[in-house]
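Project outcomes to date are best conveyed with an example. Our students and postdoctoral researchers have been running inverse folding experiments weekly, and each run begins with a structure described purely in tokens. The record below, which covers 101 residues, was selected by the lab manager from last quarter's runs and is presented without edits.
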């Protein structure tokens, strides 16, 4: 199974877009407020396991909440993506392309 071709320039542009939207290290108050609200809404710091009154697990509700949480995790990862990680991504992509050639 071949790896997808990873566009490093697109990764840089996407990272910048996330930082413009949600802020980087210089996050504005409104950006902080939105991220904190998303953390609460998406159960970022809490369990996603939903139990019914009888103690059994509700798999549909649990999956829905876990899906929310995964989206917020993806946002947080984009915000913390570094130049070094982008360079590693470029090197890894080059290695994969050489192997498949």
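After processing, the design step wrote out the following sequence:
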């Amino acid at each position: 199974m071949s790896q997808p071709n990873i566009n490093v320039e697109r990764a840089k542009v996407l990272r910048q877009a996330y930082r413009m939207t949600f802020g980087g290290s210089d996050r504005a108050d409104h950006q902080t407020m939105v991220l904190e609200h998303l953390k609460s809404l998406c159960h970022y710091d809490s369990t996603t396991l939903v139990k019914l009154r009888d103690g059994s697990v509700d798999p549909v509700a649990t999956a829905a909440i876990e899906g929310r949480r995964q989206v917020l995790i993806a946002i947080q990862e984009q915000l913390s993506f570094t130049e070094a990680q982008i360079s590693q991504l470029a090197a890894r992509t080059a290695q994969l392309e050489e192997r498949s050639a």
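The chain has one domain: 8-100. The chain is about 65% helix and 0% strand. The training component of this project remains on track.
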